[in-house]
């Protein structure tokens, strides 16, 4: 049941209506049942894995907290991490690692046979809820959070349907206390929720899906498409994946507001960043902070010398790339950003762009725009790997850019207008530093903008119910 499906347009209002009807003690039970129905709608078999992960970390958290022996505490933590990563690794990486190992052994002359499992189906959202449950047991082990005994509340923390499939990856100290206390839902929360849902659907159905049709055609038929269109498709894909993913996050946050829960902000207008460091602090924030807190710092961070810092940054980005998909193209995508980020850190460290700060305001403004354009371009270039997904496609696409004829007329003006419309939305949020700033408008202005947004979705939105890109991760 995707957010942009007709089923969800019935499911969400029904759950909200029942939520307001039932008594306080039954609200979380209702939400847990609704979340399980929501998840099982893809494939009932997936639900069993979700329940297994829930039970593993529920028990591990209690045993870690109750044990006074450090060896046992580490053992319980290891079991939790091993089981979670084992389930994730089997469903997501078994075929990838198996095929890669056999290819390597064949290269060195070993003729071994290996049988891939063609009937493995990747459970939707497994990467997201696995990382969320792992963060819980790690926080309990570190003494940052006390485990919960109420299994309904904990199971709801794992399965809360607005953010279950594609995040944000919530931390236990943010989400669990909200689920445990009585909900006081204000009119301001309802207005924020409605506006976020409308903005999310505009991003997904109006902008992302329409850009996606053009991007798909360029990657499917790159041999015969002018290079100007292929270059534009890289930029359009950067905007597509942003609108698709941040649109999901907006809808998730909006739906949660109607249920008295405030989910974390997952995107903060990343294309207004003037450096890659700033970009990654604004893009998929729940995931990048997870990697920083639970991986980067755990392996030493930047406290063990320059060489170790380089190794740690590379490890984080390589694993971050692999998290996105079981293909070498994603690993190279992570390596690409690791190299760029390390180069940027070195440049900032030794030069710091101090001369720019001494320029007059108009020049500072233009220099800032130039740096934003560079950051956006570097991200767009990575689409060759991220969208191509296979090295052969990435190589062929890059070759086509260099050899195909060049014609600006092949770039649809309507899509350029959509891109500019997106930047206008983001600019208003960037200036106000609040994605729900429209809520503060007078009621007439608020409802007029909301009605206009609904009209845009109906008139310009895709009716294809295209899946969200991050469902595959």
Topology:
Layout: H1 6-21, H2 27-40, H3 44-66, H4 70-107, H5 126-142, H6 151-159, H7 161-164, H8 172-180, H9 187-220, H10 227-258, H11 276-282, H12 285-296, H13 306-324, H14 328-350, H15 354-357, H16 361-381, H17 383-386, H18 391-403, H19 413-432, H20 443-460
Mean pLDDT: 87
In terms of DSSP E residues, the strand content is under 5%
What percent of the residues sit in helical stretches (DSSP H or I)? over 70%
Distance between the termini: 16 Å
Give the ordered list of helices and strands. Answer: HHHHHHHHHHHHHHHHHHHH
Shape: globular
Describe this structure in words.
The protein has 473 residues and is an all-alpha fold. It has 2 domains: 6-183, no CATH class; 188-472, no CATH class. It contains 20 helices and no strands. The chain has helices spanning 6-21, 27-40, 44-66, 70-107, 126-142, 151-159, 161-164, 172-180, 187-220, 227-258, 276-282, 285-296, 306-324, 328-350, 354-357, 361-381, 383-386, 391-403, 413-432, 443-460. Helix 3 packs parallel to helix 5, helix 10 (227-258) crosses helix 16 (361-381) and helix 10 (227-258) crosses helix 18 (391-403). The protein is globular and about 65 Å long. 39% of the residues are buried.
What characteristics describe this protein?
20 helices, mainly alpha, 473 residues
Concise structural overview:
With 473 residues, the chain is mainly alpha-helical. The chain folds into 2 domains: 178 residues, no CATH class; 285 residues, no CATH class. The chain has 20 helices and no strands.
